[in-house]
Amino acid sequence: MRADLILKNAAQILTCRGPAPRSGEAQRDASPIANATVASFEGSIVFVGASRDADAAVTPTPHATVIDAGGGTVLPGFVDAHTHVVFAGDRREELRRRLAGATYQEIAASGGGIVSTVRDTRQAKDDDLARQTRVRLDEMLRCGTTTCEAKSGYGLTVDSELKQLRVIRRLDREQPIDLVPTFLGAHEVPLEYRNRRDQYVDLVVNEMIPAVARERLAEWCDVFCETGAFTPEESIRILRAGQAAGLKSRLHADELGLSGGSAVAVHVGARSADHLVFVDRDHAEAMARAQIVATLLPAAAFFLKLGRFAPARMLVGTGVPVAIATDVNPGGGFSPSMPFAIALACFAMDMTLDEALVAATLNAAFALDRHDRIGSLEAGKQMDAVVLDGGPVELLRVGAPAIRMVIKSGKVAWSSG
User: Fold this and answer.
1) CATH code at 236?
2) 394 and 295 share a domain?
3) Can you tell me the distance from the alpha carbon of 222 to that of 247, in angstroms, rounded to the nearest whole number?
4) Strand pairing of 411-415 and 78-80?
5) Mean pLDDT of the residues in the chain
6) Domain check: are 254 and 333 in the same one?
7) What is the pTM of this model?
8) Interhelix angle for 261-268 vs 281-290, to 10°?
């Protein structure tokens, strides 16, 4: 078979191959191949296996790119299945205030918090919003992310929500990371609707969702189902309206308390329920029966100083497929790094390294309904890969430069050299 990219001399390739999603004991299997080679043609993998078999199986094209992995490790490109990467403005000064003792309520009362991001995002021109977002995407690429979900939710008007989603579509074309668009008009009730929230839910259902569907701007509909945000009843109404318009369902669930989000996920047949810091065993068992992915966001719990993390061990033990993501956002998702999320998954949520790697690749791809083309290194899938200096444990050395190269669709998208 012909190949225009050959990545050889890997001490091991952690393929994460096999049926998706992985759950229970199966999530511990990253399916390694020792002394391995992976090759692709026109962006699709044609061979992955032992290096001794590669020469007989693969014929390089005249101008093929041949990369020596130098005895390092090759992984599938990371799939970041939950981000709020598209926004305008900068709230890092709020972090300094929080660390100095200011409460979220005090910051919000002074015009900060999500209200600040909504104001800046509404005011931003398309080009400026794209420019600010591109910087964050470049950071994510250097950390090994090759596909990420990207939500709206900082506009909270019809025009501003559409603006965010149009920027996502534009950036999907203009930079290497594949972006998976999610409509999150139900992120927060904006200030102008606080005393008439029913009218805002009507706006989301009757105007925003139809407008998003007409332009085919999103694949997913998300809701922040949480005390103080949207109730389970409101969430079901919004997600059902999204389904009727052709948008698949996912939602923020049980982040700040057992507030009904995981039950909503089961009720509407969502693909993913995200955060789940307070989910209990009964709801986890219902999620397992429905094969709903638990997309866990340990960096959010870390930066928000919640004092606890999602119960990953319980979720894996009950058979829930677990994914992990960064939750990149302006107020509590300060790290673009999937390796940092993997490290927190291991040391704060008691996952094994192989479980965390599967969570960051194959299961995350399933959470985005992309598992047929990304999330593992196997023939027929897209050639998205991360090359490490050394073994996979290098990813856990937070701040150390473990990633040597990122390959996207069969081309080198970033290299440390």
Assistant:
1) 3.20.20.140
2) no
3) 9
4) unpaired
5) 95
6) yes
7) 0.96
8) 20
Q: Which CATH number is 383's domain given? A: 2.30.40.10
Per residue in 228-281, pLDDT (tens digit) is 899 999 999 999 999 999 999 999 999 999 999 999 999 999 999 999 999 999
User: What angle, rounded to 10 degrees, do the helices at 114-123 and 158-174 form?
Assistant: 70
Residue that has been written with the tokens 């307070």 in this structure? 278
Considering the domain architecture, whether residues 53 and 100 belong to the same structural domain is answered as no
The domain of 227 spans 78-367
Q: How many angstroms separate the CA atoms of 32 and 48, rounded?
A: 11
Using the 8-state DSSP alphabet, how is residue 415 labeled? Answer: E
Q: Does one domain contain both 59 and 164? A: no
Whether residue 162 is found in the same domain as residue 23 = no
| Phi, psi (rounded to 5 degrees) for 288 | -60, -45
Token representation of residue 222 = 């998300």
Residues 33 and 152 in one domain: no
Q: Is it the case that residue 207 has pLDDT exceeding 80?
A: yes
CA-closest candidate to residue 276, choices 230, 328, 320: 320
Domain count, the chain: 2
Structure tokens at 26: 């199966």
Q: What is the Cα–Cα distance from 382 to 392, expressed in whole angstroms?
A: 21
Q: 320 with 290: CB under 8 angstroms?
A: no
